[in-house]
Amino acid sequence: MFPSFVSLLASATLFTAPMHGADPPKPVDVQKVLDKFQAARPTASDLAVYQLDWLPTLKAAKEKAAKEDRPIFLIVVTNSYGNLKTGHC
Amino acid sequence: LEPEVREIVSKSELFKDSKRLNVFAFVLDSKGLVIHQFHGVPGGRAASASRSDYRAELTKAIAKIKLPKERDAKERAALPALPDLQMTSTGLPAGVRLFLRQEGLPLAVVETVPMGAKHWQPLALPDKVKKVDAELLKDWLIWLYPPAIRAADEAKQFQKFTGDLTLEPAGTDKSARYALLRGGIRLTKSDDKESAFEGTMQIVLTYSLDDKDVKSVRGAIEGDYLYRPRSGTQRMPLKVAIESRPE
User: Is the pTM of this model over 0.90?
Assistant: First the structure.
């Protein structure tokens, strides 16, 4: 994995969680597990960092920054292993 | 590293700091000039000499530059979405997406796992309770480790996948039939001196009323990553949400 990661600074877009529709009631054990899933799943605002326009190189970020007149947020990780795009680094 | 990035890092005040760790953060203006820098390992409000409060540091940076107008709705819609999988023509989900969080850390890891018919077939709706070999789910389970562990630990994936998982019918409603995949799992590497994972899995699988192929998956895994960097074991609680994609 390329160990540097570039983004144009941008305000994160936050979304609200979707409303539950009028689904029919589910079996009790099924609903308990679905509730556990909902509790474990991050909200949209928790995940906003993944929805910034990250670019893989500083060269590409500078071109975009110049075109859009936006600043650049540059994060450099000097690990030899890991994946910044997934958060596993 | 790109030569230009290497130069920015090596010439920075951060790099000269004896307390530096392995993450560096810079804010550059639209012409590419560095206008603010800070240690990139997050520390929240309890930031120390080598860890930063990102909110505070970015506020300082923003004060030094003129931000452009906020993106409008059309521009925001064009921003990237979460890591995802494309629809397939098989009628089966293209795979699953995992959201993994370590206790005490706000940022989630997002991993996608492509799956084909051979991966889904063992999870077809059973007539009665049956055992499921954890090895069948290894493409999901290899991701059950926290961020920011030692590179050598991360580079060596789990090798043994054991547990007492069962898949059993779990009822029906007007629109679907359900099964539950649940039980304990244990993931290990070469021996007990290396990091491992122990936890429980609870997954709901959904099927149509007239087909046994999996339509969707929702569930959670909870457990501890047993981190063994050199000596001793550090328990790192993890929570994972799993969902099939696309919807």
Answer: no
